[in-house]
Every structure is written in structure tokens, then in C-alpha cells.
Design brief:
75% helix; 16 helices; mainly alpha
């Protein structure tokens, strides 16, 4: 097992970036970048799920839904065809919705209902974009339609625009962010952190893989950065605070989506959030750690300042790269 893992890592590190493996008549495209991305996501999920095992009230159905969510994420990352992307997208959306509903109290059903409506709307927009592209080009394979260049062809902007809009809507960019903030606040803490990291990381990288219009992404990036920064001043609930912080970071990522800096930014953002999750999984009151465990309180302070981008912490270098 160890030898196999070492061989995989050696393949990823030594393989040229242009190495590509096509499977199932071009339906799946495997590259070192995609494999590295999937391995990193699986590593984060393992660290996230270990503290949950054996907890009181733990539900076996949750693990089945998490597995379905992971399969959906891997499907649309490896996809080289819009149809497979759509199937993975639906599996990802439905399993995440069921996972949230399984752990949601009756008093918080309004936020869950808004999430369901937005998910259905984003899927409808995605299907519309795929349909338009198929009507115009007669193909849904990425190697044929080449979406990144497709944006620059006159008269062929509507299909890619719908696809990009569905992804941005699912990300919860400003000014479409209110439903995401409510959902993050009212979901159980472990699911909040899961949604902070895994879906956001996966969708952003899907946007990079299929290619998205940089000018439109920058507009939404600026809006997200500004509205997230303003919203942070009025938050005293930790989950809402981190939700608005995530909106601000999303703005930075969208501004950097045409450079290699977004990868470094995403990795550092995930590391900081994972550290906070491992500390807060039992108690989300910061003052509790100040009195009972000062080293953990100091770690929380460092992680929050890193998220803010204060030098010389790790978060500063992420913003500096962008």
C-alpha cells in the first residue's frame, strides 16, 4: 500500500504538465493536475471526517451521502464532456442537499429550502447552457468545443455564459450570497466547514478546467470582496463571520483565476480553515479556550490573523502572490 502511494506521488511529481490520458472515448480526461487536486481533496476530507466518527447522534446515512458527494466531485473534475459534468454536478448537489437536510432542525428549514431552490435554478441554467452549445456545435466534448476559446467567437457567447452563471450562482458570489450566509450560519458546525472548503475548492477548479470569462469573474470578484469586507464588521456569530470571510476570499480567488496564484491561495485558505475546524469541533466559543486552554486560544488567534492576511503569517503570502 505504501509503495503504491509512493509510486502515485512520484508519477504526479515527475509527470510533465501536458501529459493527458483519455478514457471511454474521450469522456474522461486524466492529467497530473486533476489527480493532484483529487488527492488533496481526499486528504482534506479524511482529516475532516476522522473527528466525526463515534460521536453521539452520528448517523450512518451521513457517510453514504458524503461518499456520493465525493463521487460527484471526482466525476466533474475528471470529466471531459459536458454530459458527464452535468451528471457529476447533479450527484454533488443532491447528496449535499440531503446531507444538510439530514442534520437540519425544523427551525432552520427556511435556509434549506432557499438552498434547494437555488440549486435547482443553477442546474437549470447549466442545462440551458449545455443545450445551446450542443445546438450550435453539435458536440458536448471539451476537446471539440474548447470552451476557453469559445468565449472569443462572435455569436457564441450565450451557452458559455449560462454555464459560468450556474457555477457562480452555486458558489454564492455577491450579490447572490445571502442564501449561502444563512445556510452556513444554521447548518451544523462540521457541515459548515465542509461547505467552506470542499464544494468551493471543487467548483472553482472546475471553472478553471473548463475555462471561464475572466472579465465577468473579475466583476463578481470585486463585488464579493467589497460586500464580504463590509459584512464582516457587523458579525458576532462565528459561523456568519467565517461565511463573510469566505465571501471575501472568494473575491480574491476570482480576481486571480487567470494566474497560477489561485492554487496557492486556495491551498492556504483550506489549511487555515481546517486548523480552525479541528479546534472548534467541540466548542465554538473563543472565550472558552482563553480560560481553559490558552495555547489553543493562541492558535485560533494566529489562524484568524492568517485568514486576514497579516504579515508575516501564511495568509499574507497568499494575498501577496495574487
Amino acid at each position: 500500500m505504501t509503495a503504491s502511494c509512493l509510486q502515485i506521488m512520484e508519477f504526479l511529481l515527475n509527470s510533465p504538465s501536458e501529459l493527458e490520458i483519455l478514457l471511454f472515448d474521450g469522456l474522461i480526461l486524466i492529467t497530473p493536475f486533476k489527480l493532484s487536486l483529487i488527492l488533496f481533496l481526499l486528504f482534506i476530507i479524511i482529516l475532516w471526517i476522522i473527528p466525526l466518527t463515534g460521536n453521539e447522534g452520528d448517523k450512518a446515512e451521513s457517510y453514504i451521502l458524503i461518499l456520493a458527494n465525493i463521487i460527484g466531485i471526482i466525476s466533474f473534475i475528471l470529466s471531459n464532456d459536458l454530459i458527464l459534468t452535468l451528471l457529476g454536478w447533479e450527484l454533488f448537489n443532491l447528496s449535499l442537499y440531503l446531507l444538510l437536510s439530514l442534520n437540519q432542525s425544523h427551525s432552520h428549514l427556511s435556509s434549506l429550502f432557499k438552498y434547494f431552490i437555488i440549486s435547482a435554478l443553477s442546474t437549470s441554467i447549466l442545462i440551458t447552457g449545455i443545450l445551446i452549445i450542443y445546438i450550435e456545435l453539435g458536440s458536448t466534448n471539451y476537446s471539440t468545443i474548447n470552451i476557453l476559446k469559445f468565449y472569443h467567437l462572435e455569436g457564441h457567447l450565450l451557452g458559455p455564459f449560462f454555464i459560468m452563471l450556474s457555477l457562480l450562482l452555486k458558489l454564492g458570489v455577491a450579490p447572490l450570497h445571502n442564501y449561502v450566509i444563512d445556510l452556513y450560519e444554521k447548518a451544523p458546525l462540521h457541515l459548515t466547514f465542509y461547505m467552506f472548503i470542499i464544494p468551493k475548492f471543487s467548483i472553482i477548479n472546475l471553472m478553471i478546467i473548463i475555462g471561464c470569462n475572466n472579465d465577468i469573474c473579475k466583476i463578481f470578484g470585486v463585488l464579493s470582496f467589497v460586500m464580504g469586507s463590509i459584512g464582516l464588521f457587523y458579525q458576532f456569530n462565528l459561523q456568519r463571520f467565517l461565511a463573510f470571510s469566505g465571501l471575501t476570499h472568494l473575491g480574491f480567488i476570482l480576481l486571480a483565476n487567470e494566474s497560477s496564484g489561485y492554487i496557492s491561495y486556495l491551498l492556504i485558505y483550506c489549511i487555515n480553515l481546517l486548523g480552525l475546524y479541528l479546534i472548534f469541533r467541540k466548542n465554538i466559543t473563543i472565550s472558552h479556550y482563553y480560560y481553559s486552554n490558552f495555547p489553543l486560544y493562541l492558535a485560533i488567534t494566529i489562524l484568524l490573523l492568517s485568514l486576514a492576511g497579516l504579515p508575516p503569517l501564511l495568509g499574507f503570502f497568499a494575498k501577496y502572490i495574487i
